[in-house]
Amino acid sequence: MLQSKSFVKKTKQGRIQKVVREHYLRDDIYCGFGPCSTCAAAAERKLDAAAAAILVVDTNVVLHQIDLLENPAIEDVVLLSVVLDEVKNKNLAVFNRIKALCINKARRFYVFANEQHRDTYVKDMVGESSNDRNDRAIRVAARWYQNHLGESVKVLLITNDRDNKRKAIEEGLNAETVESYVRSLAQPGLLDLVVVPTSGDVTMEDAEDHRPSKKKVIYNEHKPMSEITSGLRCGIYHQGKLRVNRYNPFEAYVGSESIGDEIVIRGRSNMNRSFDGDIVAVELLPQDQWHESKSFIADDDEEEEEDVHLVPNSADDAPRNTSSTQSSVGSSAPSVSSRPVGRVVGIIKRNWNSYCGSLQPMPMPAGSGGVAHALFVSKDRRIPKIRIQTRQLENLVNKRIVVAVDSWDVLSRYPSGHYVRTIGDIGDKETETEVVLIENDINTRPFSTQVLACLPPLPWTLSPGDLANPNRQDLRHVRVFSVDPPGCRDIDDALHCTLLPNGNFEVGVHIADVTNFVHPGTPLDEEAAQRGTSVYLVGQRIDMLPKPLTEDVCSLRADVERLAFSVIWEMTPDADIISTRYTKSVIKSCAAMSYVEAQARMDDSRLVDPLTVDLRNLNSLAKIMRQRRCDRGALTLASAEVKFEIDSETHDPLDIGIYQIREANQMIEEFMLAANISVAEKILKHFPLCSLLRRHPSPTKEMLEPLLRTASSVGLNLDVSSSKALAESLDNAKNNDPYFNKLIRILATRCMTQAVYFCSGDLTFSEYYHYGLAASLYTHFTSPIRRYADVVVHRLLAAALEIAKLPPIFQDGPQLTGIADNLNYRHRNAQMASRASVELHTLIYFRTRPTDTEARIVKIKANGFIVFVPKYGFLSLSRIYQCYLLQPSFVVLLLFFFLNQVWYRRAHLSYS
Predict the structure, then answer these.
(1) Which of 321-325, 415-419, 468-472, 584-588 is least confident?
(2) For 126, which of 156, 510, 677, 717 is 20 to 30 Å away at the CA?
(3) Listed residue (418, 420, 253, 409) closest to 342, CA to CA
(4) Which residues of 646-655 are buried (b: 16+ CB within 10 A; e: fewer)?
(5) Phi, psi at residue 682, to the nearest 5°?
(6) What is the tally of helices (H) and strands (E) in the chain?
(7) How many CB atoms lie within 10 A of CB 606?
């Protein structure tokens, strides 16, 4: 059956066009019910014959009750295509979650294409809104199911829309609200998952807060979007993403392009119910209210925000452009800040997520029928306490739980939310590790069958077609080898170094050819793009790609033939590049060494075998290249990393120390940097508008102010006019303390911004610069097994070499920008998860090992100090009760029990 749909649209030239599209309707679409004899027998049977009811849910139920729908108690659900389309348009994150339920074979969720079925398709009515039309389509589909299945099973429409429910009942349909249906299941715990409606459509019997109400208006109403839009256009308001200070939740910053600076937001009242990550509209306060405050360490139980502000001084919290300076300890009157200060007047886009933490119990209200009110305290200090209602308070005390936010009323000091699930006992290592992953939005779900279906059959071997491919060079005769951390099974990169007859060297960097197996637009590619990066925790790794691909197919292991993408240079003995070529290749690595093994070979003068000679030649070239980079102004910042020895049975830490960096590490790093720079130059030459690059913005002098002030206090003058000047100043920053230089480099690291991915078409060439590497161009090419950015760059390079077509996505600028934004978000979260995992294992290690050790005070605050512990390579945050400064360089002996909050900041800037 054929229907015609017509609509009008405006062209780029401003002309109005009428578009007519044909809409085909069918009558053979399966209903999904198991015993149905009318529909095709071979079709998928998702709905159980023994179901008490088949549930047809409307759009708002999916949007707002997704936590409930994900509970295994909710089954036999029909998702109409009109509902899924509407959800996708309104909330992509919820759409992905409901989509995962529909494709999960263990769950009974069935997608019914009501818009393509002859009996359920509805035409638009004159004067009918799209929302009313979709509600009518839902009721029509529910009635079709009711007639189609007859008496065999009850069909129930679930909606919280009062008008939709009324019309459904008038039309003879069975309809219930979410709350009434959940009550009928006789599982009281499920009621905690029900989101309290805020629209007033439905009265929830247990939704009211039975405590004495506070009528005082605490927050200002948010401005309507029409007024916000007008204010933004006139310059009255300023738009940006709100970032809450990680160490003081009562201070936040909003980066505003309209004024070219970051606006400081101080206090909960000025934040006006906004959350970290919200896109907000901000109004500037009068300039006489732009005051600085003392630098404090905020208490975990801090309730009042008055005069408790932490001046940002780290890469996590520092504004990109700021002229703020920290007030001296003990200063009396606040000074006027040159940074603008403002207040939030509206929310443009919410960033509410699920949060991990524990309950702060409140008294059980009388006559509540078992309903208790409690305050949820997130482990993320940036998140305010959340008020929830629960019927299982006794089971949730002393547990880590997940809570989602539903609303935040102007009369309430706290937002309202609902319980989602319990993770485990507080303090349990597995529980706390899962909290780390949830807090940082790390995807730990197993790879779906659709993703795994994209993998090549195992065991995989090189095919004759691979060798016959004219675009792939056979390099199996070349002495290729890899050097990686011990125990590495997913080897991304390998090298070779061959002495040429003219005295020059042929040096090759060979990278696993992941894109030969990960094709654009496939479920495998989409999953990798969403995950963005592999995540490394202590003793655990969450993969971006399935292990069969990374370890058994792509990994450049020794003595096996593998596909690679190679960058090959001819270099002089002075490391000057004579020529560069790029090629897909076939290699057979002769050795897979650890850094320790490679270093031992280079250091053993008795070894003169060809492999060891290759290593020494590469190391000699790498030293020259490294010195040349430093001469250009590349920064060498503190790079201490914590290393744990883990018990193989309990997985608890047995020992902790600083990870040692050897020449072998630096050698590999140097050639990976060189390959990344060469590839960046190649892809940008061919694709100047759609190349994925990586930049490191230069810090402003204001951002470096904490470093300059600290250095000046000990008589050290640093030149920060350029990266080269700063690098030379850091090299000369020495005194009698052997750790002084490392401390200065740590402070310098913390003043830097993070390096970020970007689309070349979004910025001017001068903005491509990589400050930390002193490189005009840079990208990521060398780790496609663990970074999706490298996968994108491999596709660009293949297209530049004309051995593959450029995927259509590269013609879509906004989508490319979205990919870069997601990669930055995922990369940042992976870093934070890794750091939190180190914090957790550090705390576990020292919990039963009180330790006396030497430490250096890095920063003194009004009510605490931050110390560097050289033996273990991390910083710790502590409150001051009594402190004796022994020397001008702030050397102290500290009784280190680690029962306070351990504040590990890895002294390593991931700027490459």
Answers:
(1) 321-325
(2) 156
(3) 253
(4) eeeeeeebee
(5) -70, -50
(6) 23, 34
(7) 5
Question: Hey, what are 440's tokens?
Answer: 């940082």
Residue 140 parent element (H or E) = helix 130-149
Q: Give me the residue label for tokens 């660009």.
A: 796
Q: Please spell the DSSP secondary structure of 599-664, one letter per residue.
A: HHHHH-TT--SHHHHHHHHHHHHHHHHHHHHHHHT------B-EEEEE-TTT--EEEEEEPPP-HH
d(CA 285, CA 292): 14
Query: Helix/strand/coil (H, E, C) string of 453-486?
Result: CCCCCCCCCCCHHHHHCCCEEECCCCCCEEEECC
Whole-number pLDDT of residue 865: 74
- What pLDDT sits at residue 271? 95
Sequence-ordered list of residues with C-beta below 8 angstroms from that of 394, at least 6 positions apart, any chain: none
Residue 670, phi then psi, degrees to nearest 5 = -65, -45
What is the mean pLDDT of the segment spanning 283-296? 74
Query: What is the token pair recorded at 737?
Result: 């303390």
786: tokens are 């663990």
Beta strands in 184-245 (DSSP E): 237-244
Location of structure tokens 């020292």: 846
What DSSP character marks residue 338? S
Report yes or no: 251 and 448 within 8 Å, Cβ to Cβ: no
User: Distance between CA 215 and CA 212 in Å, rounded?
Assistant: 9
Q: How many whole angstroms separate alpha carbon 740 and alpha carbon 151?
A: 81
Contacts for 829 with CB less than 8 Å, ≥ 6 apart: 440, 441, 442, 535
DSSP structural state of residue 493: E
- What residues have CB less than 8 Å from 166, skipping those under 6 apart? none
CA distance 443 to 445: 6
Cα-Cα-Cα-Cα dihedral of 93, 97, 100, 106, to 10°? Answer: 170
Give the relative orientation of helices 610-632 and 723-731 as an angle to the nearest 10 degrees: 110
CA distance 674 to 782: 10
Tell me which of 346-360, 659-673, 885-899 is least confident. Answer: 885-899
Measured CA to CA, the distance from residue 492 to residue 483 in angstroms comes to 10
State the DSSP code for 72: T
Neighbours of 221 (CB within 10 A): 11
**Distance (Å, rounded) from C-alpha 892 to C-alpha 845?**
22
Question: 280: which strand partners?
Answer: 240, 347
pLDDT at position 310: 28
Q: Which amino acid is at 346?
A: G
Structure tokens at 217: 């208006």
Residue 730 CB contacts under 8 Å (≥ 6 apart), including other chains: 635, 636, 637, 718, 741, 744, 745, 748
Residues 226 and 214: their CA atoms lie apart, in Å, by 30
CA dist 598 and 660 (Å) reads 14
Tokens of 277: 């990550």
Q: Which is nearest to 818 in space by CA: 780, 896, 856, 762? A: 762
Q: Sign of the C-alpha dihedral, residues 830, 835, 838, 843? A: negative
Looking at residue 246, its amino acid is R
C-alpha–C-alpha distance, residues 317 and 245, integer Å: 6
User: Model-level pTM greater than 0.70?
Assistant: yes
What is the chain's length? 912
Give the Cα separation of 114 and 95 in Å (integer).
18
Q: Bridge-partner residues for 562, per DSSP?
A: 587
Structure tokens at 729: 């100043």
Q: Could you tell me where the beta strands, DSSP code E, fall in 479-520?
A: 481-484, 493-499, 505-512
pLDDT value at position 9?
54
Contacts of 119 (CB under 8 A, 6+ apart): 27, 144
683, with CB counted inside 10 A (0-12, 13-18, 19+), is: buried
